[in-house]
């Protein structure tokens, strides 16, 4: 009898172990993957953006007492903009609902309207900034103030410099407000995860469409633009996003890296976790396309306007790598996840 009891105990333990092993080995659900992406990508990226946005506002405020801190303010602007680009890869949640992404990231800024606003002697109140169009505020209005050679300098003495500094702080604080409100609403992401989990397949479809949109925009708008201008011997910084501040290539890398993270995940818990069990060959192909595209852009090593002049072939290689990635997402990834593509060129923002 004792032997039977021992056998039953061993058998029960073995059965429980098998159950655990099968559970651990089971293909993850869409709900679980979405919850993981929100916790490991969206929440930390939004929190990081909130910190960078606050640093930018403080850096610009410091200019009123320390004109020598202009280089620090420019550096803070670059860091903040790249943080916005990383958040942009996951276009769901409070920062989309409150239009913060649109209002902070809109490009190009309307310089003529900015010049008119700059001539206004009235202090730039928060309500006044909120009433401005998306092309007369945000990060690219700040780029114009910080990097344009035709505006009064931020570190200049006198009324002109003071007016530029006040407007710069107002723009930065306005963008900061959107992300801080969004971060507070997002919290740990559990509420958003619950909401999106109720329509998990639709949300996965949204993410895949966003990934396709991001990559297509990087290829067809960013790199194709400089290639076409170079072919006509007419490379103009005003036509390239981030060219004035020298971050045009960094913007591409930031968006591409954040998009890759949605697929790969934090520890293999991205969309790839849904693809690998059903289509391992597709998983490997998508991963390799991401790696090839990212490395090709990283190898440019200079802003796009300079890179295309120095080595057009390298920019063309990066463009082709992005188009191959785009095709893998449109054909392979969409098929593996049962996604219907609704993205069309021009939907990137």
What features would you describe in this structure?
It is a single chain. This protein is 72% helix and 0% strand. 43% of the residues are buried. By secondary structure, the protein is mostly helical. The chain is globular and about 65 Å long.
Q: Key features?
A:
disordered C terminus, 349 residues, disordered N terminus, mainly alpha
What Rg, in angstroms, do the CA atoms define? 24 Å
**First-to-last CA distance:** 72 Å
Task: Give the topology string: H per helix, E per strand.
Answer: HHHHHHHHHHHHHHHH
Number of helices: 16
Estimated helix fraction: over 70%
* Count of strand segments: 0
Entry summary:
With 349 residues, this protein is an all-alpha fold.
Summarize the topology:
Layout (H helix, E strand, L loop, with lengths): L1 H24 L4 H33 L7 H19 L5 H4 L2 H6 L5 H9 L6 H5 L8 H9 L10 H29 L3 H8 L2 H32 L16 H17 L7 H4 L4 H19 L5 H7 L1 H26 L12
Helix pairs in contact: 2-3, 2-9, 2-10, 3-8, 3-12, 8-9, 11-12, 11-15, 11-16, 12-14, 14-16, 15-16
